[in-house]
Amino acid sequence: MNEYINLTLNNLDDEHICCAIGDPKHQDGVDNKKQWLKERFQEGHIFRKLNVRGKVFIEYAPLETSWTPVSGDNFMYIYCLWVSGSFKEKGYGKELLEYAIEDSRNKGKSGICTITSKKKKPFISEKAFFVKYGFKVVDTIGDYELLSLSFNGTDPKFNKNARNMKIDNTDLTIYYTPQCPFTANGIKEALEYSKGHNVPINIIKIDTLEKAKNVPCIFNNWAVFKDGKFVSNTLLNKNMIEKLYK
Fold first, then answer.
1. C-alpha 214: how far from its chain's center?
2. What pLDDT, on a 0 to 100 scale, did the predictor assign at position 172?
3. Which DSSP symbol is given to 236?
4. CA–CA separation, 74 vs 127, rounded Å?
């Protein structure tokens, strides 16, 4: 039987959080993520991982306290389900998702949901995997889709503000949270590019639940705007910003 670990306040300091393992440039992001988790556990946030040194985990939370512009009555929301490298095709993703579904049922939830996309995108879970388990598209914004596995016939939806997908500021603008350990380095590289190329930049840290629920776009933990329009949910580095301006 595969051994899994649920992170808690008691073991968080001693356990890795799967992402950015052993990469010094992401250490600040890892520290930020662990602090964020400490504040979320009391809200029912779950981080479950395979007991290996690799990226095999699922992260989900009650929708009401999830930092994403989605609303619904008594649902769970999946932030991330990630199985990478040599761990793929061994059933770990299946076991993690089935655990989250069963956990949601046992807690009396109305269902469980997540954000995917019509076309495969980085940092977004693959739609086909969830569809196999009965998840259905219940709302859309452009290429992005909200999938729901309802237990009682009700479904969540994107918040009205998320449909804007535009802002008044025309500068390169990035919304982010500490929920992902990669965002800290992404912000650092964006600021360095801005300074080195005289590109105006606007960094907006989403540091409260209220801000997260009212982001003006599709959002899981990172969103990029250019010329006032949403352009990507993909974390940036200096090379990627260069391509945006070319």
1. 16
2. 96
3. P
4. 22
Note the pLDDT of residue 10.
98
47 backbone φψ class: left, alpha, beta (φ>0; ψ -120 to 50): beta
The model's pTM is: 0.96
Question: What stretches of the chain show up as alpha helix (H) in DSSP?
Answer: 27-40, 92-106, 127-131, 183-197, 209-213, 238-245
Count of CB atoms situated within 10 Å of the CB of 112: 26
Name 241's Cβ contacts closer than 8 Å, sequence gap at least 6: 172, 189, 190, 193, 199
User: Could you report the per-residue pLDDT of 22-73, keeping only the tens digit for each?
Assistant: 789 999 999 999 999 999 999 999 999 999 999 999 999 999 999 999 999 9
Three-state DSSP class for residue 55: coil
Q: Which residues does 198 contact at the CB level (< 8 Å), separation at least 6?
A: none
Token pair recorded at residue 227: 């010329």
pLDDT in tens, 66-122: 999 999 999 999 999 999 989 999 999 999 999 999 999 999 999 999 999 998 888
Phi, psi angle pair for 8, to nearest 5°: -140, 175
Centre a 10 Å sphere on the Cβ of residue 10 and count the other Cβ atoms it contains.
Answer: 9
Tokens of 209: 């639940």
**Dist CA 218 CA 141 (whole Å):** 7
All structural domains of the chain: 4-158 (3.40.630.30), 162-245 (3.40.30.10)
